[in-house]
Design brief:
Helix content of chain A is about 80%, strand content about 0%. With about 110 residues, chain A is mainly α. Chain B folds into two domains: about 110 residues, Cytochrome C3 (Alpha-Beta Complex), CATH 3.90.10; about 80 residues, Alpha-Beta Complex (Cytochrome C3), CATH 3.90.10.10. The chains are: A mainly alpha (about 110), B alpha+beta (about 260).
Chain lengths: ~110, ~260
């Protein structure tokens, strides 16, 4: 019974907040959420590219070129990270890129 | 010239080329692979860090630390700071007081959260401090397969027999990857007629190193495109980046030149 009353009270409070248009989600929170999302985006891209290094010998030259291109496109985004993260992830991205470029070179002979 | 005479000449040549620098390279098994990290410690009023490779390679692959965590292969090049550790990078990837190994919490690095020179700091900042590296190594070594030189441990046999199970993935740090498709073994032709060729095992190396540790930074070459020499290896290039520092020393000729020597 007590729990039901609590749930009703929470629902009412939430409804009032929405109806009153209270600034629960201020610009700051939106900005923080967007920043977190942007961070996730670069990391997802990083993980997607770098998860492929161990398979690199099985890719075609075109697939390898595309992966190298994605590394190059990701680099400016990693460069915008805070100093220590930038240092670590730029090195990791460079290692990924170098390996993919190395395999590409060994496959195309260029 | 018979086989024995050739061996004697080889030994004489080895002894003749043995100098003070070589003497410095011969270290006790528990200190083999030891790295002193002294970029910032002394300025911060702490002893330099003594990093023992044997402790870490018993638990993790080389790839995990040198690719996923991002430690440089060159001594002192990573420039680890208390700030990087505090952010969960470099040593702080594991030494964060939360990460557990074998059910035990790995101690946190002293990233400004502990007072100076206390027992926590001195677990790593331990140069010229009381550390029982030798005693701990002896206990560990007792269960390990032996091999001459270096640490005196046959790390490859330790791994293949399941005595050690090096971890290759760290949650939140490593990237999920499919298992590596090892490339074929190949032979590397010896530069001199009296030495046997090297049978290079990609499989053995890839288990510890993955691809990126070696290619292209250490080996930026296509198979057979460049001939490198033992002199280059001895000066720390190519195989010498690891062998003679952490992996078994190059004095152990027949670990690589596996065929008969004439």
């Amino acid at each position: 019974m007590r729990n039901n009353r609590g749930s009703v009270a929470i629902a009412l409070a939430a409804a009032l907040v929405v109806l009153a248009g209270a600034p629960v989600f201020s610009d700051g929170i939106y900005a923080a959420a967007a920043a977190a999302s942007a961070q996730d985006d670069w990391k997802k891209e990083f993980e997607d590219i770098c998860s492929k290094t161990q398979d690199s010998m099985s890719f075609t030259p075109d697939e390898l070129k595309s992966l190298v291109g994605r590394c190059d496109a990701l680099k400016p985004r990693v460069e915008k990270l805070e100093e220590t993260q930038r240092k670590v992830y730029l090195k990791r991205l460079q290692m990924c890129r170098d390996l993919l470029a190395f395999v590409l070179e060994s496959k195309t002979g260029k | 010239m018979d086989y024995l005479q050739r061996i004697v000449i080889l030994l004489i040549l080895l002894l003749a080329s043995f100098d003070e620098a070589d003497a410095r390279r011969i270290v006790a098994p528990h200190n083999y692979g030891r790295v002193i990290i002294a970029n910032y410690s002394e300025r911060a009023g702490l002893a330099p860090v003594v990093f023992n490779h044997w402790v870490h390679r018993a638990q993790y692959t080389c790839r995990l630390c040198h690719v996923d965590i991002g430690f440089a292969m060159e001594k002192g090049a990573t420039k680890i700071t208390a700030a990087t550790n505090k952010q969960g990078l470099y040593c702080g990837s594991c030494h964060n007081g939360k990460y557990t190994y074998n059910g035990k919490t790995v101690f946190a690095s002293c990233s400004g959260t502990t007072s100076r020179n206390d027992a926590v700091c001195e677990r790593c900042h331990s140069l010229k401090k009381n550390s029982d590296n030798e005693g701990e190594f002896k206990v560990f070594m007792e269960k390990m397969p032996r091999k001459a030189l270096g640490n005196g441990i046959d790390w490859e046999a330790a791994e293949s027999s399941g005595l050690i199970k090096p971890i290759d993935f760290l949650e939140g740090v490593s990237v999920q990857r499919p298992p590596i498709k090892a490339q074929k073994d190949f032979s590397i032709e010896a530069n001199v007629a009296w030495m046997s060729d090297v049978i290079f095992s990609h499989k053995k190396h890839a288990f510890w190193n993955g691809c990126e540790v070696c290619h292209p930074e250490i080996f930026p070459i296509k198979k057979g495109a460049t001939r490198y020499t033992m002199l280059e290896i001895d000066s720390g290039e190519y195989c010498g980046v690891c062998h003679d520092k952490v992996a078994f020393p190059i004095l152990d000729c027949q670990r690589c030149h596996t065929g008969a020597i004439y």
